[in-house]
Amino acid sequence: MLPNQERFYPESEITHLTDLKTPLLSGCSQALRLDVPLDRPMLARLQLHATYQGQQGRSTVFLDSDMLMVRPLPQIRLASNEVLLCRRSLDRTSLFNPGFMGGLFAEYSGQTIDQVHPALACFTATPNISYWISLLSALSNIDRKFQLWYGDQEAMRRSLGNLQFSFKMIPEAIAACLPEAPQAREASILHFKGRRRKQLLLGKTLGV
User: 3-state DSSP call for residue 67?
Assistant: First the structure.
């Protein structure tokens, strides 16, 4: 990650959520470290999110470490029961790859990626940890394979019917845009996932 958030939000507290050994990311002021199961990254992720309290009286934005903020976000105001999810908005009609991870998720064959995971876990804003606690509970009650991969987004999709929460949506094109997408020049955050991570480390950000 090239931490750029302080450029737009200098008063913000930037915390690295991680295991006991990973070095602190550059640009983070502090870390929350837990002895999480590294062989089950989705479980580890939700355990960390469900523990981080954030700044008192302020909503917390959770970002993946392969994302770069290039413009301020639209104003985020959340009531105590509200959650801001990143709504998939790019390439929504592509089919889910049933051969991924040796066919471990073959039950989604024939479905679009938007049907399978309409919300992306790389960007989420919450006013407190209640939502993350509910996702962690949901993950523990579904197939254990989701603790390895897709578990956060699977739990998110299932949570959309949870009347305990009120959901707001921010489009992927704004909060997690792929750098090569035409919408990238209007995005607030670029997402350099997969092979694009090297591009992020080299600082090639479309000139923004």
Answer: strand
- HSE-CB for 89 with a 13 A CA cutoff: 18
Query: pLDDT digit string (tens) for 16-33?
Result: 999 999 999 888 889 999
List, in sequence order, every residue forming a beta bridge with 82; answer none if it has no partner.
Answer: 166
* Sole residue written with tokens 């019917």: 161
Query: According to CATH, what is the number of the domain 5-201?
Result: 3.90.550
**Domain residues of the chain, as ranges?**
5-201
Q: Are 4 and 65 in contact (CB under 8 A)?
A: no
Let me know: does 123 contact 176? Beta carbons within 8 Å. yes
Closest listed residue to residue 153, CA positions, set 88, 60, 81, 90: 88
DSSP 62: E
Q: Residue 33 to residues 19, 24, 52, 71: CA-CA distances in angstroms?
A: 5, 10, 10, 29
pTM: 0.91
pLDDT per position as a tens digit, 49-91: 999 999 888 999 999 999 999 999 999 999 999 999 999 999 9
Residue with tokens 């394979």: 145
Distance CA 25, CA 170 (A): 26
Give start and end residues of each alpha helix (H) in 106-187.
113-116, 130-139, 151-159, 172-175
